[in-house]
Write a structure and sequence with these properties.
The structure holds 2 protein chains of 2 kinds. Chain A is α+β, with helices and mostly antiparallel strands. Helix content of chain A is 20%, strand content 36%. Chain A is built from 3 helices and 12 strands. A 6-stranded mixed beta sheet of chain A has the order 1-4-7-6-8-9. Chain A has a 6-stranded mixed beta sheet with strand order 2-3-5-10-11-12, with no helix packed on it. The longest helix of chain A is centred in the C-terminal third of the chain and has 15 residues. Chain B is an alpha+beta fold. In chain B, strands 1, 2, 3, 4, 5, 6, 7 and 8 form an 8-stranded antiparallel beta sheet that branches. The termini of chain B are close together. At the A-B interface, strand 5 and helix 2 of A face helix 2, strand 3, strand 6 and helix 5 of B.
């Protein structure tokens, strides 16, 4: 098993499961591993999977922009390059990768108008993908439901669970 | 007395204030439910987002949350979180004699679904409980502290929390989380109350607490 843990990241690993907490990223080349982001609300999870090398990475972005410290991918604008770098480090090619995204919901109607962080997170991810010359192969973004995502390193399938049901991208 | 933001004295002073406020929330729960309510010792501390999520259990757990924004002299967010089954039973306690629990309220997959009456009862529960807490905090300010209209939501615990926490951590990495767990009645209903003020409010509250002590 190969698991990259960038400095400052706290990654919970149980048998075959690597969890990216809020603002963290995980990556692996172990086909038996599953990378997970639990309970995404306004946050956005971005996954990359290289079908040739079977390398996978999953980032749990928190906010579109910002300054300062914190976990490695707290901000999309600061953490996106780091996400791609972690993927490359294990032998993944962003150009060849299937890139998928989920999350960016507007969870609470009473907060939606004033903050709209979910929508801004989605826009930030799209902007940084475009800058890197990449595009989403599939996505499940927006809406008003929370999501848990699981990326199977062996086959690149992204399982998305919510209170509304389960789907696979 | 001057309280340096982030100092041990600052944290201790704010902890005392929030512990009193959470006691008031417990009293409101007792009064509203007319049941024996046991409130565990409250937990007030500065912590990272992940720790706040861990405080309420697994982020993947489906919970019933009642959210209220906090406005006025103190700004931030407040949550009452219950397990779906606990929320249903709590609503049953509140609506005893008004509404008979019915199997018709179960969803197609056997999931717990809350009726409009049950949802309304839980929103009122959140409103009364958190308002009691905010009234206590409001004693330190000349201007009042107000809760917004409550909103009940059935969701993943992590998803509810990330929606409210993101508003607080744009410029800081840690938030003050004041939370407590409680049990109600003969059959245990676990719940959590979380009060999450923003950083400027905390500075104002600390100053107000210091003035109060002078």
């Amino acid at each position: 098993m190969t698991l990259t843990i960038p400095s400052g990241s706290v990654v919970t690993t149980t048998a075959g499961l690597s969890v990216a907490g809020i603002g963290e990223l995980v990556s692996s080349a172990d086909p038996d591993q599953t990378l997970v982001c639990y309970g995404l609300g306004s946050c956005v999870a971005v996954s990359a999977w290289d079908p040739r090398t079977r390398v996978a990475a999953l980032a749990h972005f928190m906010l579109p922009t910002g300054t300062g410290g914190g976990p490695p991918v707290k901000f999309v604008d600061q953490g996106f390059d780091q996400f791609l770098a972690a993927f490359r480090t294990l032998g993944g090619s962003p150009a060849r990768a299937q890139i998928k995204a989920a999350g960016g919901a507007s969870m609470l109607a009473v907060m939606a108008g004033s903050l709209d962080i979910g929508r801004r997170n989605v826009q930030a991810v799209e902007t940084h993908l475009s800058k890197a010359g990449l595009r989403l192969a599939a996505s499940d973004l927006g809406g008003s439901v929370g999501r848990t995502v699981q990326l199977a390193v062996g086959n690149g399938r992204l399982l998305i669970k919510s209170v509304a049901g389960t789907k696979t991208l | 007395m001057t309280l340096v933001v982030g100092s041990d004295l600052w944290q201790a002073s704010l902890s005392t204030v929030f512990l009193h406020a959470l006691d008031r929330a417990g009293e409101a729960l007792r009064a509203m439910s007319d049941q024996r309510v046991e409130v565990e010792s409250a937990n007030v501390r500065m912590c990272g987002v992940g720790e706040v999520v861990a405080q309420v259990g697994s982020p993947d757990d489906v919970v019933v949350g009642v959210y209220l924004g906090i406005t006025g002299s103190l700004r931030g967010h407040a949550l009452l979180l219950l397990t779906p089954d606990g929320a249903r039973r709590f609503a049953g306690l509140l609506l005893e004699g008004v509404l008979e629990p019915s199997d018709a309220l179960a969803g197609p997959d056997g999931d717990v679904v809350l009726s409009a009456m049950e949802t309304s009862a839980l929103q009122e529960l959140g409103n009364v409980t958190i308002a009691a807490c905010l009234n206590e905090l409001g004693k330190y300010f000349e201007e009042p502290v107000h809760p917004t209209v409550p909103q009940a939501i059935v969701e993943l615990a992590g998803a509810i929390l990330d929606a409210v926490l993101l508003d607080l951590v744009t410029d800081v990495d840690q938030v003050l989380a004041a939370g407590t767990r409680f049990t109600i009645g003969g059959e245990t209903i676990d719940g959590t109350i979380l009060i999450l003020p923003d950083a400027p409010s905390l500075a104002r509250l600390a100053e107000a607490v210091a003035s109060h002590a002078r």
